[in-house]
Amino acid sequence: MTTIAHISDLHFGCEAPMVREGLLASLEHINPELVVISGDLTQQAKRREFQAAHAFLATLPYPYLIVPGNHDLVENNLPERLLFPWQKWRQYISRELEPVIHEEAYVAIGVNTARRVSLNPDWSRGSISRMQVARIRRQLQTTPTTHLRLLTAHHPFWLPPMFAHRELVKRGASALQAFQSEVDIILSGHVHLAYAQVTQGVIVSHAGTTLSNRLLLHHTNSFNVIRGDRQRLSVELMEWGSQRFRFARQQVFRREDAGWHQQH
Ligand SMILES: [Fe+2]
Ligand SMILES: [Fe+2]
């Protein structure tokens, strides 16, 4: 059984130091094989925020897979955004924008859905290109069928009805169709809301904001723990409760010929 911790939207610059310590304590107890971090590592892509994020990552005693989010692109410096969009990311976080980790029981693939420019007036919206979809499918073609297949992207491929005003990742619907029966679970963030749902036979699972004070009304910091294999997966929600992270709920999913479905 594989155990993966999924944290997101850390937003260094707006992080809560006590929650950060609580996260490290909780991870020590869970002892994940991998920590997935689905973007928005910083608040305004400032150098000191990237430095704080770098210091945090250096304390993580687990392998991690990380992709950028829209907040990791600088907003108020157009020349930097256009000409050197990922310079600080590569300097402080990773040379890779789209890492891939192959392990004995799983493959974890990162895809960068943040864009420096967009025709959409909302530049925070994400996009997945046909080339990115083709690359992911190629990588999965050589993956043993028994391996759990995780994809990580910052932006959402599915949104709950209360978030209908937010936009899905551009080309998300056709990408989901292409990923059917190839990708098991997509791990994302961006909306700062934890939820998991099967869409087109694929599990779409979002982590809330794990460390930041950018909380939705009536929500607290959270992260998810994914456990299982290609037959059965559980998504556990861990919520911050003033002193520490506590187990809040679990959803269980099973895979059949038509894809994944939630067990009730
Ligand atoms: Fe965010
Ligand atoms: Fe975001």
UniProtKB/TrEMBL annotation:
Highest taxon listed in the record's lineage: Bacteria
InterPro entries: Calcineurin-like_PHP (IPR004843), CNP_phosphodiesterase-III (IPR050884), Metallo-depent_PP-like (IPR029052)
Keywords: Hydrolase, Iron, Metal-binding
Xref: Gene3D superfamilies: 3.60.21.10
Alphabetical list of SUPFAM superfamilies matching this protein: Metallo-dependent phosphatases
Gene Ontology molecular function: any one: hydrolase activity
Ranges for domain Calcineurin-like phosphoesterase: 3-192
Keyword Repeat listed: no
Pfam family, one: Metallophos
Family assignment from sequence similarity: Belongs to the cyclic nucleotide phosphodiesterase class-III family.
Name of this chain's protein: Metallophosphoesterase
